[in-house]
Here is the input.
Amino acid sequence: MQRIYFDNAATTALDPKVLEVMMPYLTEKFGNPSSIYSYGRETRMAIETARKSVAKLLNAHPAEIFFTGCGTESSNTAIHAAVRDLGCKHIITSPIEHHAVTHTIQHLDNLDAVTVSYVKLLPDGHIDMEDLEKLLAATEEKTLVSLMHANNEIGNMLDIHAVGNLCKLYNAIFHSDTVQTVGHFPLDLRNTPVHFITGAAHKFHGPKGVGLLYINENVRIKPFIHGGGQERNMRAGTENVYGIVGFAKAFELAMETYETDSAYIGTLKYYMHEQLKKHIPGIAFNGDVLGRSLYTVLSASFVKTERSEMILFNLDINHICASGGSACTSGADQGSHVIRAINFNPNQITVRFSFSKHNTKEEVDAVVEKLKELV
Ligand code: PLP
Here is the structure.
């Protein structure tokens, strides 16, 4: 039986065209980019060409683009730097951020390095902007606001410009985890008031193990990882040349076909939403499904029964990949902190379905058909 992969918000299939441009750097072009001989300079050139291409697609300057090991490392770097180097003593965040952000902030809180405020959420899971402004206005300390652009579990999208403008007004530093939107949504950083954003190639058909950190040219920070002078002294360690080249190629391809891919993937999401509503009694959906929401993610809650409690397991037996929560907790039975924060109903079982351009309407039909049996 063919596998149906509906867990694209966790990770995606590597595009063969991306692998093709990576291959030379996995084989014959292995020279050290930091060396002085020309064989190494070739790989340095590949990294800098990738940086320019990524910068252009984000409408940023190449000097603002840093390659890291993953989205998690990028957020760790930004949040630590905001506290250590930019004087932030207060962090405003939300209870529905990815663990890459929440656990980093909790760590700093446990060290007594910061105080943390959690902004209120509206019933549809969006940030309460009035509460955000209240929190910003009430603080005298330098503040970091860390709010994600699109939520990986429910798909809700932040009005990044509105939050950025509020941060500007109150002289706060703004970090946005954009791991779900880089490669999925056009970003124009020259015209977006944000200090740090993050990305990960494996979310848009690039390789695993390579991340992006954008640092606005007006902020100066120190490295998070110490060692050699790579990434202009900002991220030590011999560069992941094939990963960086793959990041740029995957990003170029994603942005080339963004219009058609996003429209197509959106039709799958809305079709599945409609079919589930029609065929599964008592089904509910999380977040602002039909509103300000990412086209790739559909979070559904099923009425809890003995059968539905086994749903992820049974989907797996039927070769259907879906997730119970964020990527790192797929398969774990703790339940999701995001779902708990927006709509805690102990009588529901939540499953996240997330789509890519490789999915089809026939796959949606097959999954809905299977779900009819499984719940
Ligand atoms: N932030 C969000 C919103 C994510 O969805 C993920 C991946 O699940 C991450 C951060 C972590 O990215 P990475 O696995 O590249 O560290």
